[in-house]
Amino acid sequence: MSDLRLRIAPSPTGSVHLGLCRTALFNWAYARGRGGAFVLRIEDTDRTRSTAESEAAILEGLRWLGIDWDEGPEVGGPHGPYRQSERVVGHKETVQRLVEAGYAYRCFCSAERLTELREGQEKRKETPRYDGRCRDLDPAESARRAAAGEEFTVRFRVPEGATVFEDLVRGSVRFDHGEIDDWIMLRRDGSPTYNFVVVCDDVDMRISHVFRGEEHLVNTPKQILLYEALGETVPRFGHLPLMLGTDRKKLSKRTGDTALGDYVAKGYPRDAIINFLCLQGWALDGETEVFDTATFVERFDIVDVQKAGAVFDPDKFRWLAGDTIRRMGLADLADAVAPYVVEAGQMSAEGIAARRPWFERLVAGEQERIELFGDFPPRVACFFEADDAVTFDPKAEKNARKHEARAETLQAYLGWLEGRDDLDDPASLGAATKEWVQEKGLKIPALFQPLRCVLTGQPGGRDLFDCVALLGLEATAARIRAGVARLA
Ligand code: GLU
């Protein structure tokens, strides 16, 4: 078995953020492309903010993206449990060991004292940090006070010097220990902090590579010092560039949707979401924007990830979505838009199944025009309106009213149409209609503009004779008759 072991360690505290999806994709692809293992660990130590719903959403979101894990919740594995909250016993033993060895110490400073300390430092414009009062407490006294029931936190004793490491994305990174506080490993209530447990769990799970968002870069020296104190091998780190909004600030709800679910709900195709996320900090060859997941897995290397922040371009995302839709097979596209049609109340799932060829024709006419599955229902709304109450777009109505003889033209055309048997064949009906228009000595718009208005209410859109085919003779005739009256 390969020693290459990657993981993601999401905290189940909210919706499934796109940043998490990208981190998952990059770790997963790296493992899959190199025969390594990919582990999912749920970091639910923040008991007040973690929820079962959020954890379920993470699992579902990853599966939806096609990301599978070799070890983790629901699949198990030899290094479980894979929920951090179930691992606290091991965490406590480790703290005990580090305190005994002098790498960590108990801090009995009260919350009030620490607040005062911080406020004083802030007033003097100093970086808030612990002043080390309990750092050199006699170990025997420390043990006695703890045994007597005095409350304490456990802090890591940051030594003098500096930590330097080779980040696979950022190159050599250096942190002077003067910048690092004696950080808390165990809170007063005995609960462990992130920087501490993440190392314990990554050690236990034999994680070899940690790829995560740049916001964690400042945590890395603390974690490296802890690996060293534990006598464990430090994994390779790679910090992925921040995803930035178009305002160049960290992507947030302020500038747009950040949750996977929002994009799924709007109908961004899965392949487009994956493709777009791959481009957040990585490029295939600097030219090719569109590629599939298999290509990504084959070609992805962490050392090719850029350092600079990745700007999240919503227009490009939409474009990629539309491009993906245009490349879909019609049956797949029909399946994909069907739930949106049901959701919009236009048809039932059974109705769609019963009229499948009709539905595919409805979909085909929009394949070139929509960018998201969710764009579809509003674009075809006219086909589900009552024949005598089609919503007229003001521009469509204005176009129709430009033609004085619209009522006579429409009526004459209806009479001609009723005698034809090719309503189901847009190409044939279209060609014949154009001849009819010429024979009548009319210009094309004199029929087409009023006809489009009464049939669809729209100034433009799909082929007009495709609309006739979709409506059938009965509805076409009803719409023409009602439209003649409405445009009088
Ligand atoms: N629970 C952390 C987060 O959600 C994991 C960070 C890490 O990968 O170390 O950001």
Which secondary structure elements does this structure contain, and how are they paired or packed?
Blueprint: E1 5-8, H1 18-33, E2 37-40, H2 52-65, H3 88-100, E3 104-107, H4 111-123, H5 139-147, E4 153-156, E5 162-167, E6 171-176, E7 184-186, H6 194-204, E8 209-213, H7 220-230, E9 236-240, E10 243-244, H8 260-266, H9 270-278, H10 293-299, E11 310-311, H11 314-326, H12 330-343, H13 349-354, H14 356-364, H15 376-380, H16 394-401, H17 406-418, H18 426-439, H19 444-456, H20 464-486
Parallel strand pairs: 1-2, 8-9, 10-11
Antiparallel strand pairs: 3-4, 4-7, 5-6
Helix pairs in contact: 1-10, 6-7, 9-11, 12-14, 16-19, 17-19, 17-20, 18-20, 19-20
The structure holds glutamic acid.
